[in-house]
Amino acid sequence: MLYSYNIRILLLIICYNLIISLLLYVLTMPSITAKKIKGHTYYYARQSKRINGKPKIVWQKYLGRAEDVLAAFDHQPKPQEILVHEFGVIAALYDIACQLNLVHHIDQHVPKRGASVSVGTYLLIAILNRCVAPCSKNSIADWYASTILPRLLGVDASQLTSQRFWDNMDRIPRTAMVQIERDIVSHMVRHFNIDVRQLLFDATNFFTYIDSFNQRSTLAQRGHSKEGRKSLRIVGLALLAACDHHVPILHRTYPGNQHDSPTFRSLVDALVARFNDLAEDQDIEVTLVFDKGNNCADNLAAVQDSPYHVIGSLVPTHHPDLLAVPTRRFKPLDELEGVSVWRTTKTVYGIEYTIVVVRNRNLQDAQTATLLREIATRRRRLQQLQLRLRRWQQGIIRQGRPPTLASIRRQVNECLKVRHMNDLFQVTVEAGDNNIPSLRYRFDRQAWNRLQNTLLGKNLIFTDRSDWSDTDIVRGYRAQHHVERAFRDLKDARHIAIRPQYHWTDQKIEVHVFCCVLALMLQTLLYRQIAHQGQTLSCHQLLDELARIKELGVVYPATQKQSAPQIQMMLSSMSETQQMLYQTLHLEQYRAS
Question: Which pTM was predicted?
């Protein structure tokens, strides 16, 4: 009984203390108090505290009458407009440009005139535009104003007229571009620790819309367009890229009607000079990889005399002895599924090289499927032509000009002009009944088997790296996909996009291509930075995700106490991927304060 009584007393004491504490909190918390003065009620916000055990008002602010309080809430300022600017992708690429000291290297060789915007700044704006939203110089000011670049560069959009861009492009001669590229690449290799032990060389071309009668361009010529645009003038681009994420190391623009082999020969001195720049501070061996289109005696002799090691490929049909090696002599490579090799040495253009004959089962299957599709198409066309001739012979077709031996042979040659078809089909065209030609054909099964056993699925690789294993040589040659990827990026319509280019003089075409190559450099370095963090985004996914990070400026109208509208800056909401990119690339440093 006594125990229960003590419990009740204890509970009463606890409740009393809680009530006292609650009262003290209520008395000291901020509150709104009403006062009546001369019959009118006025409201005050106040806060009290207990001092020496007695409550005392320590803070008080006059709020006004009830209608004043309500009016204050009713007149809460509403946003006047919202400004949306490109933030994420611009900030990320601008940061890479700053790490490269891009503007400094350009201005060092092409100094500005007076107090105007420097040439390097103009080119930086053009380069960033190629990365994000390629457009003409006439439209670049509108794009520029929609980004955070005015805040970063301090250049007004009104200064970015097309004429200003053309004037600044005119001030960059070819010699300056060579020097600028050399300095930027040297800086890039050191700062980003680019692996340059394996470099890839290749050439491509880009079609243009330059008028046929425009004689101001010697670069834009008609030639073999690699995109099938035979009716348009094309401009050639030779590119040296690192195996390390296809970062560009050297480029040259050349006439579109020039073949790959003389292009390569004309660049050997430039390649050697770039090697000396890259290997100046480090003792490294550099292997140059190129395809069979560059093979000739002069080119291989020039490379032999250079500091480069080489990996290339031979034209298979020029070396039937290597194709005739029996399959049983090939040994499989455990590291590369479906690949087997046979290794030997052979003198090529007077130089002895290690030769690796590669048989790729997956490549052979793909080539076989392609050829079977072509065979079916050619057989169908020959059948249709044969049936038509029979209808002429039988008098079923009487209208129109009768076929002749010459016209039928031209049609047969056109049908079989696809590679290997002339070897696989035996076609006879001869005079027939009623002076109408007759056509007979058969599929050569022996030629098909010979093609399967010798050529299909094979590559002939040559190299002076006799110290390398078979696997290393095959992988070294396969690394060419990096430079091919660079060309695909340069032809991408959404990013970089060398074409369409709106210039028609050689000097401006060269500057335009130069800007596109530097844009490729920024893009690949950004992608490389993310890839080294273990992220699996593709380059296009990376740019698209960053482009979705916007900078928003919420504009509030001016009040009685403010003479100008107020802007509250913030970023758009970010997904988990965008938040990761924002943190990884340290983009917070470019937020508006």
Answer: 0.79
Question: Using one digit for the tens of pLDDT, what is the confidence trace for 278-330?
Answer: 776 667 888 999 888 888 888 888 888 888 899 999 999 899 999 999 989 99
Residue in this structure with the two tokens 């696997």, named with its chain if needed: 471
Q: 522 near 536, Cβ under 8 Å?
A: no
Please give the structure tokens belonging to residue 581. 């990119």
Residue 245, by phi and psi: left (phi above 0), alpha (psi -120 to 50) or beta? left
Using CA of residue 108, residue 111, residue 117, residue 119, what is the dihedral sign? negative
Q: What is the DSSP string of 420-489?
A: THHHHEEEEEEE-GGG-EEEEEEE-HHHHHHHHHHTTTEEEEEES-TTS-HHHHHHHHHTTHHHHHHHHH
Within 13 Å of residue 475, how many CA atoms lie on the same side as its CB?
12
What is the distance between the alpha carbons of residues 398 and 395, in angstroms, rounded to a whole number? 6
Per residue in 76-95, pLDDT tens? Answer: 567 677 788 899 999 999 99
Name, in order, each residue with C-beta under 8 angstroms of 140's C-beta and a sequence gap of 6 or more: 125, 126, 129, 160, 162, 165
- Dmax over CA atoms of the chain, in Å, equals 137
How does strand 351-360 pair with strand 458-463? antiparallel
Nearest 10 degrees: Cα torsion 79, 85, 89, 93: -130
- Which residue from 83, 72, 87, 86 is spatially nearest to 556, judged by alpha carbons? 83
Q: What pairing do the DSSP bridges indicate for beta strands 198-207 and 287-289? A: parallel
Euclidean distance between CA atoms 139 and 142, whole angstroms: 6
Q: How far is CA 135 from CA 203, 266, 493, in A?
A: 25, 33, 10
- Distance (Å, whole) CA 331 – CA 474: 13
